[in-house]
Amino acid sequence: MRRAVLVGVQGIIPHPHDLLAAGLWPAASDYEQRGEKMPDATVKFEGARYVITMDLQRRIISNGSVVVQGQRILHVGKSEELSHVQVDRVVDASDMVITPGFCNGHMHISYAHATRGIFPDDLGSDYLPNVFKLQAIMTEEEEYYTSLLAITELLKYGTTTFMDPGSTKYIDHCIEAYRQTGCRIITGVHVTDKPNPLGLPVSTTADAIETVEVAIKKFNGQLDGRVSAWAMPFAPSMCSDELLRGCKFLADKYGTGMTLHYNNSQNYIDASVKETGMLPSQYLEKIGVLGENVTLAHMLGQDMSEVQVLARTGSRAVVVPTAAVKGGAGMAYTGLLPEMLAAGMAVGLGTDAGNNSNLLETNRAMYLIAVLYKDARQDPKSIPAETALEMATIRGAEALGLSNEVGSIEVGKKADLVLYDTRSAEWQTLFNPVNNLVYNADGRSVHTVMVDGKIMVEDHEPLFVNEWELIQKVQGIGEDMLARTGLSFQSRWPIV
Ligand SMILES: [Zn+2]
Q1: Which of 41, 273, 347, 426 could be a cystine partner for 3, CB 3.0 to 4.6 Å?
Q2: Distance 262 CA to ligand 1 centre (A)
Q3: Does one domain contain both 254 and 356?
Q4: Are residues 413 and 326 in the same domain?
Q5: Ligand 1 center to 167 CA (angstroms)
Q6: Ligand 1 centre and the CA of 286: distance in Å?
Q7: What is the 165 CA–ligand 1 centroid distance (Å)?
């Protein structure tokens, strides 16, 4: 018997509780609660043009098949070798390229979609406090629908795992969006105990540490393990040493991770040298907050000596090219990506948020990361397409501490899969699928997406929500939020 997959919800946006009540959401834990054995759910994606496995040998299997049982990959290989495997459902994957689901290591999921695109470019970085002002007035229901739309976009374009670096206000409520969409997420609560230019709430150190611990205890491992919860002190410049140490202690104690914004301005670097006699990364090492469970996001403003510190401590990184280039960050000059990779660091990709990336598409991030350093260093061999794809998959999973479970198509791993439909002009001609994937394709050719063994997107359509109804709902939420805050931003051209 095949496990039920939610299909064809039309006309309304279903509330997750209704889905559960209707038995349309059978996670393994649901079976457990009912005291039943989860049925073997076997799907075969058959005869793919290529399966890009990202396994240790980086095999690309032509005319390949992938067999899924329950939440995991049961077989991967040549179609003819797997033709005998009996399955409940065969999905014709001819003309498809199958990749692992992509990992997005830094994506503020909850707040930007309701007002995405409102800031004209001439506002520069002054848009940022307005983002947080808007977020501050969001209700639970608004955050749920806005998150749902952002996750819909991520999934439709092939991202199956992402980290929200602590900006979701109502995780309790949004957990329903994570359940409904079937996504894999790392969540948490960002904390600060120092006044900051972003206007983020400042807690006492003790309260901030308690907030982090409560979130980890409550959410880590939820939804069949699809949810992880990490310690998320916002940035070293906004947190005391005591808070940073406390967060690292909690990450160690609960076996999770810690993430920090690490986008170091020259002012911050100068202040660090003046106050501590050390560069920021050297100081973080000294106070004991670097290590193998620490993921630093953005990674701008370091020098080679800091890269060596980060590599030596096993610290991990996520770079965010779409946001960096739009923000004029000079990423290819102040972000030492080729050096971090050469030093053996696990580095993944992120997209930050809907107002500075603005499309949440891994293909765009892969493309940018593959071309930025070629241009800046006048070296066409810098960051090859294969490296960009590694950063979106297996290396990105490593940067999130999840590479034992996801990031490649290998027997025993979680079945997070993306099928690209190559029957379109931009995919042709097709001889080297990695080059085409990174340089030609975009997320619009994502045809089918499976997460944790469940098909969540099929024939380009999300199966968990009526997308158009949701879009209209979130547009209304955005209009309402602008009215409530009194904020408005004129288009640079007259809208008549
Ligand atoms: Zn961020």
Answers
A1: 41
A2: 9
A3: yes
A4: no
A5: 8
A6: 25
A7: 6
CA of 470 to the centre of ligand 1 (A): 25
CA 76–ligand 1 middle distance (angstroms): 36
Q: Ligand 1 centroid to 260 CA: how many Å?
A: 9
pLDDT, tens digit (0-9, with 9 covering 90-100), for 323-356: 999 999 999 999 999 999 999 999 999 999 999 9
- How many angstroms is it from 352 CA to the middle of ligand 1? 5
- Domain check: are 134 and 92 in the same one? no
Q: Confidence band (pLDDT; 50, 70, 90) for 36?
A: low
14: confidence class by pLDDT, cuts 50, 70, 90: very low
Domain that holds residue 82: 16-100+409-465
What pLDDT does residue 129 have?
86
For residue 76, what are the β-bridge partners?
66
- Quote the number of domains for the chain: 2
Structure tokens at 67: 């067999």
Residue 413 and residue 310 in one domain:
no
Query: Residue 470 falls within a domain, yes or no?
Result: no
User: Residue by residue, what is the 3-state secondary structure of 21-66?
Assistant: HCCCCCCHHHHHHCCCCCCCCEEEEEEEEEEECCCCCCCEEEEEEE
Model pLDDT, residue 1:
33
Average pLDDT taken over every residue of the chain: 92
Same domain for 287 and 419: no
Distance CA 309, CA 307 (A): 5
Q: How far is the CA of 266 from the centre of ligand 1 (A)?
A: 19
282: CATH: 3.20.20.140
Using the predicted structure, report yes or no on whether residue 21 has a pLDDT greater than 60: no
Position 23 pLDDT exceeds 80? no
What percentage of the chain has pLDDT greater than the value 90?
84
Condensed to tens digits (0 to 9), the pLDDT of residues 401-449 reads: 999 999 999 999 999 999 999 999 999 999 999 999 999 999 999 999 9
Both 353 and 250 in one domain: the answer is yes
Span from the CA of 360 to the centroid of ligand 1 (angstroms): 13
If you measure from the C-alpha of residue 350 to the centroid of ligand 1, how many angstroms do you get, rounded to a whole number? 9
Query: 327 CA distance to ligand 1 centroid (A)?
Result: 13
**Tokens read off for 22:** 């209707």
Average pLDDT over residues 358-386: 97
Cα 213 to middle of ligand 1, angstroms: 21
What residues contact 212, with CB distance under 8 A and at least 6 apart?
188, 189, 191, 231, 232, 233, 246, 247, 250
Q: How far, in Å, is the centroid of ligand 1 from the Cα of 444?
A: 25
Ligand 1 center–CA 108 separation, angstroms? 6
Distance 323 CA to ligand 1 centre (A): 9
CATH number of domain containing 440: 2.30.40.10
Sign for the CA dihedral angle at 325, 109, 403, 83 comes to negative
Structural domain ending residue among the three candidates 399, 417, 432: 399
Average pLDDT over residues 53-81: 96
- Does residue 111 come out as left (phi exceeding 0), alpha (psi in the -120 to 50 range) or beta? alpha
pLDDT value of position 199: 83
Which pLDDT value is given to residue 399? Answer: 98
